[in-house]
Specification:
By secondary structure, the chain is mainly alpha-helical. It contains seven helices and three strands; from the N terminus they run αββααααβαα.
């Protein structure tokens, strides 16, 4: 079966949606990856004061900022490739979105104390670690993942029929008919005369004129 091609206007809108979705998801992932997801407080034996550590999304889930960079690159690639290459990029976008969603979901459903202890540690006995989860940022990572998955699936299902970057500037192949020559203008004749003078020829000599 051949690929069903959408009307040009609809195809361009779908391409715009996919590129915007991947770019927005990538930018959102980079943003939330730099925010504080967990604030860990380590209480130490007296008279030592407690210490507080802010753990960012990039520390707790390194795949979040990495997925953001990948999605931004994929948004550009969607414009540059066509056909099977675009479908492959769509699959990559969907996979990156799944990783983002899984990272956000794991932070929301997991134990914040355990996650903080894995990074900060508790050190010697007598120390107590408590962690506060800032749920807004993992939720945004989850939403970025969902958006990327939707953009990737749209690309996989519809991307083969989308136009490529610069297609409007491509020359349509002819049917074998010769391309008619452009009519010569007075400016063309003046340029030919100057070229003849540079070659040491007389531009007024009929035998030296170019046809």
């Amino acid at each position: 079966m051949g690929t069903v091609t959408a009307p040009p206007g609809r195809a361009r809108r779908e391409l715009t949606l996919a590129v915007a979705g991947a770019a927005l998801a990538g930018g959102l992932a980079l943003s939330v990856g730099g925010q504080t997801w967990i604030t860990a407080t380590l209480r130490r034996p007296a008279p030592l004061p407690p210490t507080t550590t802010e753990l960012t999304g990039g520390t707790l889930a390194p795949l979040v900022p990495a997925g953001g960079l990948l999605l931004l690159a994929a948004a550009v690639a969607l414009l540059a490739v066509r056909g099977a290459g675009r479908v492959a990029v769509g699959l990559l976008v969907a996979v990156a979105g799944g990783v983002l969603g899984w990272s956000g979901m794991r932070a929301l459903l997991g134990d914040a104390d355990v996650a903080a202890a894995a990074v900060v540690g508790t050190g010697s006995p007598g120390r107590e670690l408590t962690a506060e989860l800032h749920a807004a940022w993992p939720v945004l990572a989850l939403l970025a993942g969902v958006l990327a998955v939707l953009a990737g699936l749209l690309t996989v299902l519809r991307g083969r029929g989308w136009p490529g970057m610069g297609r409007r500037y491509e020359r349509t192949p002819s049917s074998g008919e010769p391309v008619p020559a452009r009519p010569r203008t007075d400016e063309d004749r003046a340029v030919d005369a100057w070229r003849a003078l540079d070659r040491g020829e007389d531009p007024t000599d009929p035998g030296g004129r170019e046809p």
